[in-house]
Amino acid sequence: MQIKFGTDGWRAQIADGFTYANLEIVTQALADYLKRENPNGRNSVLVGYDRRFASDHFAQRVAEVLAGNKIHVDLYNHDVPTPLVSFEVKRRRLDGGVVITASHNPPEFNGFKFKAPYGGAATPAITNEIESLIGQTAPKRMLLEEAKRHGICEVISTSNDYRQHLENFVAIDELRNADALVIADPMHGTGGRWIETLLFGGRLRVETIRAWRDPLFGGVLPEPMPWSLELTARTIRERGALMALITDGDADRVGAMDENGEYINTHQILMILLLHLVRQRGWKGSVVRTFSQSVIVKRIAESYGFRLFETPVGFKHIGEIMLDPENDFLVGGEESGGIGVRGHVPERDGILNSLLLLEAVIASGKKPSEMVRDIWHEFGEFHFERRDLHVPMESGMRLLNELREKTPDQLAGYKVVGIATRDGLKLLFEDESWILFRQSGTEPLLRIYCEATTVKKMTALMDAGEKMAREA
Length: 472
Description:
Blueprint: E1 10-13, H1 20-37, E2 44-49, H2 55-68, E3 72-76, H3 82-91, E4 96-100, E5 109-115, H4 124-133, H5 144-149, E6 153-156, H6 161-169, H7 172-176, E7 181-185, H8 194-198, E8 205-208, H9 230-239, E9 243-247, E10 254-257, E11 263-264, H10 266-279, E12 286-290, H11 295-303, E13 308-311, H12 315-323, E14 329-333, E15 339-341, H13 350-364, H14 368-379, E16 383-389, H15 393-405, E17 410-411, E18 414-420, E19 425-429, E20 434-439, E21 446-452, H16 455-470
Helix pairs in contact: 1-2, 1-4, 10-13
């Protein structure tokens, strides 16, 4: 099969594309890349994994191929959040980290993420180099026990450094002493009981649901989107909780629900965090949004005179901006819940952002739903929806080409005033509403995103867009 890195690593279906043989080929390409980057040094790599089927076995195979190339490997002895690996790579000044995870993909998938020495997702330039080396060298492998005997591989447990960093980053004592009940939902992923244990020790009560390992994720996608959160919403209402803090399968994305069990969309989370950092912490700097992020984020940045960057979809593009000190980065986020914040690694982190979101709510003295309404009152009301259509890749690409070559004058009765093509194709409307069509480059999935000033308009645009996509 063709092995290609997507928005964050390589992913494929287990036993189809994601096999031991293909994993060895990818790992050998990574080993060749690392040795080329540091030909005279001692390369060291950290390997972690999530809770998916056989992730621990796949991680061991990665370690064995790296060891076969005389690259020193530390292999975790249990599943860990992806952002923990990124943090440790930077803290320990390693040559990189590998995480076996397919993030929020269906349970039949697994994946391979490479974290660069700076503690973030590999840039497109790095992944392009790794891809160019795939299949160039036959994989070398040293069995784990032999690698341990030779001191090339160590099986390790987590240190306390990541936990201490998170506690220092947020107002942890104020959070622990808040008089509230919070639901934590890791969706059976590696978030586990991280949020609960970080917040333990005061008046705040945290109840974790779906904390145990389930490679099938309870029958839903491990992505903090409304269609996967019925249990979360019901638990909030039954327990009278202030809110729910949710992480995805490998805990690098954040999601939330308010006191009514209503979804706080990922755009709104970024808005709340941005305003909290500016108004409560007094921070300033540039703001980054991906092509599928909200108009309101742009309006907030403009209201403070902050520099605004817009990137293609994928956190690796945000990470590149975070790495350049001249950009004076403050905060940035993508529609899917990946958010980066100054002072942390150039990486999204669902656990950190959950704590920071709770800090914003507690500091405001308001309920989450009130915070969202206040943002609408100040910056304008917008509603957002995303739909994922399983259509052949060629159909999705054909639709994008047709829209580009012959842009419609209207959609669902609303006048189209322009298009944007940074990543996919976005139709623009008079009141800054928009609808975006974006074909995945690695799977037969067409995503449709829409943000509009009323629920009625949003639904009409989405229905019309979906109908047009299915007929393409």
